[in-house]
Design goal:
Elements lengths: L5 H8 L5 E5 L8 E6 L6 E4 L3 E5 L3 E10 L1 E2 L6 H9 L8 E3 H6 L4 H10 L6 E3 H15 L3 E9 L2 H5 L9 H5 L1 H5 L17 E9 L5 E2 L16 H6 L6 E3 L7 H7 L6 E3 H16 L2
Parallel strand pairs: 5-10
Antiparallel strand pairs: 1-2, 3-4, 4-5, 6-11, 7-8, 9-10, 12-13
Amino acid sequence: DGALDAVELLRYLVVTPDVEMIIRLGDEKDGVELVKHTTLKDQTRMLGSEAVRVNLEEAVIEVRRMQSYVNRGILATKEQVAAYFRTFDQNNKGFADLKELRKSPQYRYMVAALELADRDRDQKVTLKEYTDLVQLQATAMTTVVSLSVGTRDRGLFEALDVNRDGRLSVRELRLAWERIAAWDRNKDSKISDEEIPHQYHLVLASGAYGYYQPYQPNQPVQLVSTAGPIWFRKMDRNGDGDVSRREFLGSPEDFDKLDEDRDGYISLEEAKKAEEKLRTKTSQR
C-alpha cells in the first residue's frame, strides 16, 4: 500500500541471521569460531582460525580478527614523547609553562591536554606528568573494540592471499582453484573479470579506531598467529602458516611422519593432529 505499518517494520527487524560467529580478541588461540550457518551453509568456510569467508553470488564477505591496531601516535616511545614535549618547553626549563602557552596561538590547541597532565595544578607540566598522561591514554585505548569495514573491489590477488601477508605461498597457489571455483558461474572452468565478485572485509580488533592505524586491505599485514602448537609457530619463520622442510628443525623422518598428505609442508591441521596424538599418548602412560 506504499506505507510501512508497525507490523511490517517488526518483521523487518526480526530476521534470522544467516551466519553466527564468535570473535575472541586478545591472546586467545582460536580467534574466530563459527557458531552456526543457516541459509549460507555451503557458502561459508573458515580461513584458518583467524577469519570466516562467506561466498555470495555477487560478493565475498570476509570477517577477520586482528590482535590490535598498530598505533602510530599514542603508543610512542619514551624518546618520541620527550622530543614532542620539548616543543612546549620553550625555554628549556624542564617544564611546560601553561600560562605562557595560553598566550601563544600555535599552542592553544594543546593547552587542554596539558592541563589534564598538570596533576598538582601548579600551571607547570613536567616531562614525567606528560609521560604519565600519555601512558594513561594508551591504556584507555586498549579497552575498546573497533570494527573496520572496507572493500577490495574485484581483486584476484587479495582473494588468494588468505593470511594477508602480501605474498602467495605454495599452499595458497595449490588451493587457488578450490577457493575461487565457486565464482565460475558459467561452468567453463575459467574465471573471467566479470565473474570475480566484489570483496568486502570486516576486521575486529582491540584498540580505538582513529588513534590506531586502521586495517589497510591493499598493504601487507603481518599477522602473528597464536594458533597451533608452540613448536609449529616457532618453526614457521616466514609466517606463511606452513612449516617447510627447510624450516623444520627435526629429522627428515620426523618431517615425513607429520606431513601426512605428502605435499612437502606441515600444515596447521597436521601440527594440531600430531600434538593431540602426543598428548593422548602421554596421558596414557
